[in-house]
Specification:
heterodimer; A: 359 residues; alpha+beta; Rossmann fold; OB fold (Dihydrolipoamide Acetyltransferase, E2P); 2 domains; six-stranded mixed β-sheet; five-stranded antiparallel β-sheet; B: 567 residues; mainly alpha; two-stranded antiparallel sheet; 74% helix
Chain lengths: 359, 567
């Protein structure tokens, strides 16, 4: 298996609907995915992530830009000749073929001998634990098994790039987690380049080397999961990945690695690596993750508990902070003081978790 | 648009296919229609209105037109009423041997167009079994409007039945239960809920029967007598008096009527029924299983069914009888005629039908595939022409082919090609429709998966698409074969010394009063069709037995008969 890097250069896709209106689905996207990297395109529906994936697979033509596999521009390579295989959202198993026939469909097209096919299919079926179901028809399999067949069918081709189009969205929650771990394990084991499309942020977090957050056809931010979560570049990213409270204000003062943001309530000091990108007086929002809010009886930032809900692992609070609505979660409620509806509390923010984004 | 054209040139195979299909549609549908349009305005190469003047001037052609309309209205009303009665019984009442209805519903699809007309002659004609032998009426006359009404109603009510049975089945029982629950009597529920909900279906059924009655050629030729109708008059003008202009003008009028009715049926009535009928039934309907009402309904339905069956079995019986009404002794003479002098027609028909069947079946699937799955320039036109073909009556195809293919550049009159083309064009709409329906149920990403794994366009079509739409493909094969074997209205214009057809021979026998031979032909035709259908159904079962796609398993004939009426 020879994994390939994938490079997207200024890729744009425009659709024209029946009435002649033009709509830009993917807008000037550039991205370089390394050999063996697991990259996830994450975003709300209609953000262009699936269209991007389909352009890589060759199902959609580019309106502009280029896509390279390794050093080769794939512009003129039709979908059936591209060195990438795809796992579809609906699995797209061939309903009239057995599990085994499904898996070796692509190999047969390559005109491999029966024994060569056997040689390649057997280890994949081992990995995917599919031997028992070899001769079953797809409609006799459970959702998870179908998913495995779809994955095996793509893997057995030993593609340079493996594409996933929301492959787990049809599974129940528990199975989704099992399959997710399995996909990641196999991808690492085989060293495949994988491009994965999903709208589920926890899936993206747990799978990816890199998350590419897309919105309205553009890339908002690309980076490792931790970076995207902790250091979002835009309000959209901070809101889409995890949940976020925003405290709006202006930059009061900036130092080399910190910003002082003046909000209506208070002035907040934030450690910010890219502080020099901001100007004094610029309108910004401070991203406060719910888990970065600490509650105590004494302090300088008074707030009121509007609603308090016990969730087992955590205690959830809705807070009124001088007219601003804040959402907070506190882990391990059993080991901590718990506040109830109407209680007066004081807030402190875990400074290292705060982050500033342009308003 | 530009992108679509670019798309085409990137896939040379698709381009070739689109061009081929488009050319076929243009040559065998659009061009003949254009020719007929042109001819209706031309007398000896000069433009004039003579053709249309003759159609509307009040003479023979006008009466043919009004006659057809009167007949169509009466037959549609009667058929729809009977069909509703049947469909209601079918959907609401627990009837023993329900399968029987399905069988009866398929009969008119598979039987030659004039079986019932022949039976009517045997029963009610001069020397008829009922008219003379039982009632003692001499010189009884079944020919004319009353005969046509009887024969067409018995032939077409099953069509209406299929439409209405489907509709009643899809009315959610919860609606009627709600009405009962709010205090309605059964009769009030029927009047206020069930009947209003079935109005679109009734409209649908009415229009479909109306169109078929208007376009009918076989029955008027057999039993019409002095009652002249449009399809027959077109034939008379074209073949009898060589007045192509008048024939073409009348054909244009008929075509206009059927196209308008189809449009109304598809875009107006069809749309309406989508609004009123809610998705899948919430629960099974509780069938009426006791009571006087049930017994009466069942009684009437059995009676009517028995009548229909009687009409169908009388023909085989008649084929063994020396001279109906005069000499009821057993004979094989009629068959020896069919197998000696008549043999050529039988073999020609079989040969041409067997050639047309795979071509027609595959062509319909490819066309459906292009329409549902592909984006290319000219797709709208392709869709339009193939949709138009549904609405073209056989006689109109017939006369237009004479006009289009009698001279260069496409002088193919008298060849096998023209007959095969007519067979395929006549059967194609049903195949396309079932192809489209079943393709729409298949997730497009299955085909993308094949492409993604390295399959070329044609490989994807033959290894994935065609196996997945096999039921539609087989139903299209069955339908093409059946329609070809029993085709008359279109091909009657096209038969020649080189190629004769069974249906044309039957007609000739009926015209010369040799009902016995006609019956023998009909019987043979029915037997051939049953054999062919068994073979095709066997193949369907063989190839589709392993897996099912949602729907219950149905035979090719059942699918074909349903597809031929539902849109």
């Amino acid at each position: 298996m020879s994994a390939k890097s994938v490079k997207l250069e200024n890729v744009t896709k425009q659709f024209t609907d029946d009435e002649g209106k033009t709509m830009t689905a993917v807008n000037d996207v550039s991205l370089h995915i390394e050999k063996g990297e697991f990259a996830t395109l994450l975003g709300p529906s209609g953000c262009g992530k699936t269209t991007t994936l389909r352009m890589i697979a060759g199902f959609e033509e580019l309106s502009n830009g280029a896509i390279m596999f390794g050093e080769d521009n794939v512009q003129n390579i039709p979908a059936n000749k591209r060195d990438c295989t795809m796992v579809f959202q609906s699995y797209a198993l061939f309903p009239h073929m057995s599990v085994y026939d499904n898996i070796c469909y692509g190999l047969k097209l390559k005109k491999l001998s029966k024994s060569d096919i056997e040689k390649r299919v057997t280890p994949i079926m081992d990995i995917m634990n599919l031997h028992v179901n070899k001769n079953r028809m797809p409609n006799q399999l459970s959702g998870g098994q179908q998913q495995r067949v779809a994955l095996a069918r793509a893997l057995v081709m030993e593609p340079g790039v493996l594409l996933f189009d929301e492959p787990l969205s049809n599974l129940d929650a528990k199975l989704r987690i099992t399959m997710r771990d399995e996909i990641r394990r196999i991808q690492k084991e085989l060293g495949i380049t994988a491009i994965y499309v999903t709208h589920d942020q926890s899936e993206a977090m747990s799978l990816s080397d890199r998350i590419v957050v897309m919105n309205e056809g553009r890339i908002e931010q690309a980076g490792p999961p931790m970076e995207v979560y902790q250091k979002p570049k835009t309000k959209f990213v901070s809101d889409f990945i995890g949940t976020a409270n925003f405290l709006d204000g202006v930059v009061d003062k900036k130092e080399s690695d910190r910003l002082f943001v003046k909000t209506t309530q208070t002035t907040i000091e934030v450690q910010q690596e890219d502080a020099d990108k901001f100007d004094e007086g610029q309108s910004v929002s401070v991203v406060v993750r719910p888990e970065a809010i600490n509650l105590s009886k004494e302090g300088t930032e008074p707030a009121k508990v509007v609603k308090s809900v016990f969730m087992g692992q955590i205690q959830e609070y809705e807070l009124d902070f001088n007219g601003i609505h804040l959402h907070a979660v506190v882990a391990d409620p059993g080991g901590k003081e718990v506040y109830y509806d109407g209680d007066d509390v004081h807030l402190t923010f875990s400074q290292r978790s705060l982050h500033v984004v342009p308003a | 648009m530009k992108e679509n054209i670019r798309n085409l040139f990137k896939q040379p195979l698709l381009l070739l296919l689109v061009v081929l299909v488009m050319l076929t549609l243009i040559i065998f549908i659009a061009y003949p229609m254009f020719q007929i349009f042109l001819s209706s305005f031309l007398s000896n190469g000069e433009f004039d209105w003579q053709g249309y003047q003759r159609v509307f001037a009040g003479g023979q052609l006008t009466s043919a037109l009004t006659n057809s309309l009167v007949l169509a209205i009466i037959v549609s009303i009667l058929s729809t009423a009977i069909a509703y009665f049947f469909a209601y019984t079918f959907a609401y009442i627990d009837v023993p041997f329900k399968k029987l209805f399905n069988g009866i519903a398929i009969l008119p699809v598979i039987s030659p167009p004039f079986v019932i007309a022949l039976s009517a002659i045997l029963l009610f004609g001069r020397g008829g079994f009922i008219s003379e032998t039982l009632l003692g009426i001499e010189n009884a006359n079944i020919y004319g409007l009353h005969g046509l009404i009887l024969v067409q109603t018995l032939t077409y009510f099953p069509v209406a039945f299929l439409v209405l049975a489907g509709l009643l089945r899809s009315i959610s029982p919860a609606l009627e239960e709600a009405s009962d629950n709010l205090g309605s009597t059964k009769w009030q529920t029927f009047k206020k809920v069930t009947l209003p909900l079935s109005v679109p279906g009734i409209g649908n059924a009415f229009l479909l029967v109306f169109i078929q009655s208007m376009a009918d050629f076989g029955n008027p030729m057999t039993i019409g007598g002095d009652y002249n109708t449009v399809a027959r008059e077109i034939y008379m003008q074209a073949v009898g008096s060589y007045n192509m202009q008048a024939g073409a003008a009348l054909a244009m009028v008929l075509l206009t009527v059927t196209v308008i009715l189809y449009a109304v049926q598809k875009f107006w009535v069809g749309k309406k029924s989508y609004v009123t009928v809610t998705g899948k039934p919430t629960s099974a309907r509780k069938m009426v299983s006791t009571g006087v009402f049930r017994r009466i309904m069942i009684g009437i339905c059995y009676g009517l069914s028995a009548t229909v069956i009687l009409f169908y079995i009388l023909v085989p019986i008649g084929s063994f009888i020396q001279l109906w009404g005069v000499n009821y002794s057993f004979t094989l003479d009629h068959y020896s005629y069919v197998f000696s002098i008549g043999q050529k027609a039988v073999l020609d028909t079989l040969q041409l039908s067997i050639i047309a069947t795979p071509i027609g079946g595959l062509f319909a699937m490819i066309l459906a595939f292009l329409i549902v799955r592909k984006r290319f320039a000219g797709k709208k036109l392709m869709e339009g022409i193939s949709m138009l073909s549904i609405a073209i009556p056989g006689t109109v195809i017939g006369i237009s082919y004479i006009l289009a293919f009698n001279q260069a550049p496409l002088a193919i009159t008298g060849t096998a090609l023209i007959i095969i083309a007519a067979f395929i064009v006549r059967a194609m709409p049903v195949g396309i429709r079932s192809g489209i329906t079943s393709l729409q149920q298949i997730d497009p990403s299955i085909e993308e998966a094949a492409t993604n794994l390295g399959a070329s366009g044609s490989k994807t079509f033959f290894s994935i698409v065609l196996p997945l739409i096999r039921p539609a493909f087989f139903s299209s094969l069955v339908y093409t074969f059946v329609k070809s074997m029993t085709a008359m209205s279109a091909v009657i214009f096209l038969v020649s010394a080189r190629y004769n057809l069974i249906t044309a021979s039957i007609l000739a026998q009926v015209e010369s009063g040799r009902i016995g031979v006609a019956s023998a032909y009909c019987t043979l035709l029915i037997i051939l069709m049953i054999i062919a259908m068994l073979i095709l159904n066997g193949l369907t079962a063989l190839f589709t037995g392993k897996w099912k796609l949602g729907k219950d398993k149905q035979t090719g004939a059942e699918i074909a008969s349903k597809d031929s009426v539902t849109t």
